[in-house]
Amino acid sequence: MTDISNKRVLITGAAGFLGSHLCDRFIKEGCRVVGMDNLITGSLQNIEHLFSHENFEFYHHDVSKFVFVPGELDYILHFASPASPIDYLKIPIQTLKVGSLGTHNLLGLARVKKARMLIASTSEVYGDPTVHPQNEDYWGNVNPIGPRGVYDEAKRFQEAITMAYHTFHGLETRIVRIFNTYGPRMRLNDGRALPAFMGQALRGEDITVFGDGSQTRSFCYVDDLIEGIYRLLLSDYQFPVNIGNPDEISIGDFAEEIIKLTGTDQKIVYKPLPQDDPKQRQPDITRAKEILGWEPKVPRSEGMKKTWEYFKSLPEWEITPRSFTSV
Ligand code: UDP
C-alpha cells in the first residue's frame, strides 16, 4: 500500500473514541499527526500515550470557530462531533455547529493547505430506513425536527457541503458513512447500547433494553473500521462509502450476549423506545468491497471480549456514571 510516512495529518475529535484510534494508526504509519479536540465529549486519557511522541501535537480547540494550523497539511480527517443520542439531547446546538460550521471551517483550511479532506458521515443519514440493507444510493428517511435531527441533518449538510467543495473548488474529498462501531475507548456513559450494557454489568445494575428489543443493529469492531477509513482516504473515490459490519443482531439478543459474556446475574428490564429509534440497520458493503477491497475481519465474539477487558480495566471512578465537561 501507499507509503504515507512523513505526511502531516490533522485529526479533529482526536481525543474521542474513533479520533484517538485514527491518531494511533497514522502515527504507526510514520505520519506527523496534529490532534484537535474541544474535549467536551472526548477525553485526554485516550491520547495520553501519544503526548511524548515526537510526531504528535495537540490543539485544544473548537472547530466550530475559525481553525488555524501553522505549517503544511496533507490530510484532514474531520471526526469531531458528539455521536450518541444522549449527547445530542444534551448539546444539540453544538452538535449542529460542529457538523455544519466546523465542516465549513475545515474545508476552507483544506483549500488553503491543498489537503485532502475526509469527513466522518454516518448511517444516520439513512434515518429510520425503509430499505434493507442500506446501500449508498438510498437517500434516507430522516425526521429533521426529531431528537436525532440535529445530528442527522448536520451530517447530511456536511456531505452536501463537502461534495460542493469537491465539484466547485476541485477539492479532494472522501466521505465515509460509519455504521455502529464499538471497542476500547468508548465512553462508558455515552448512552450507547454496548457501553450501557457493559457498564450496567460492571456496576451490578439491571440491563436496560429499550422497546421490546426487536430493533436491530450491526456492530463493527473499531480496528476493522479504522482500516476501512484508512483505505478510503488513500483511494481516489469521492462518493460516500459505507463502512460497517453487516453481521446484524436484535438489541434483545445483543443484551443476552453481553449478559453471558460478562457473567452478570442481573436481569433485563424494558424501557420505552426513544423517539425515531431506527427499527433496522445493516450496511450494504458491496461498494467498500469492490473499491477498497475491504471487509470486516473481527467477529463480534472476539471484539466484544476485547472491549469487555478494556471496560473491566478502568478505574472505579470511571465506572461510576459521570457527566461530561460543561459547555
Ligand atoms: N439501547 C437500549 N438500551 C440502552 C441503550 C441503547 O436498548 O441502554 C438501544 C437503542 O434504543 C437502540 C440500540 O440500542 O435501538 C442501539 O443504540 P445506540 O445508541 O448504541 O446506537 P444508535 O441507536 O445510534 O444506532
Task: Describe the protein's topology.
Blueprint: E1 8-12, H1 17-28, E2 32-37, E3 56-60, E4 75-78, H2 85-90, H3 92-113, E5 116-122, H4 149-169, E6 173-178, E7 181-182, H5 193-203, E8 207-210, E9 216-218, E10 220-221, H6 222-234, E11 241-243, E12 248-250, H7 251-262, E13 268-271, H8 286-292, H9 300-312, H10 316-319
The structure holds uridine-5'-diphosphate.
Uridine-5'-diphosphate binds next to helix 5 and strand 8.
In round numbers, the mean pLDDT is 96
> How would you describe the shape?
globular
Strand-residue fraction? 15-25%
Q: Which class best fits the helix and strand makeup?
A: alpha/beta
Alpha-carbon Rg, integer = 19 Å
| Bound heterogens, unique | uridine-5'-diphosphate
Question: Which tags fit this structure?
Answer:
two-stranded parallel sheet; Rossmann fold; binds uridine-5'-diphosphate; 37% helix; 327 residues; single chain; alpha/beta
Would you kindly provide a written description of the structure presented here, covering whatever features stand out?
- The chain is of the alpha/beta class and 327 residues long.
- It has a domain at 8-187 and 220-246 and 280-297: 3-Layer(aba) Sandwich (Rossmann fold).
- It is built from ten helices and 13 strands.
- It has helices at 17-28, 85-90, 92-113, 149-169, 193-203, 222-234, 251-262, 286-292, 300-312, 316-319, and strands spanning 8-12, 32-37, 56-60, 75-78, 116-122, 173-178, 181-182, 207-210, 216-218, 220-221, 241-243, 248-250, 268-271.
- The strands form four sheets. It has a seven-stranded parallel sheet with strand order 3-2-1-4-5-6-11, sandwiched between helices. It has a two-stranded parallel ribbon with strand order 7-10.
- Strand 1 (8-12), helix 1 (17-28) and strand 2 (32-37) form a beta-alpha-beta unit.
- Helix 1 (17-28) packs across helix 6 (222-234), helix 3 packs parallel to helix 4 (149-169) and helix 5 runs parallel beside helix 7 (251-262).
- The longest helix has 22 residues, at 92-113.
- The chain is globular.
- The N and C termini lie far apart (42 Å).
- Bound molecules: uridine-5'-diphosphate.
- Uridine-5'-diphosphate binds at residues 84-85, 180, 191-193, 196, 208-210, 215, 217, 251, 274, 277.
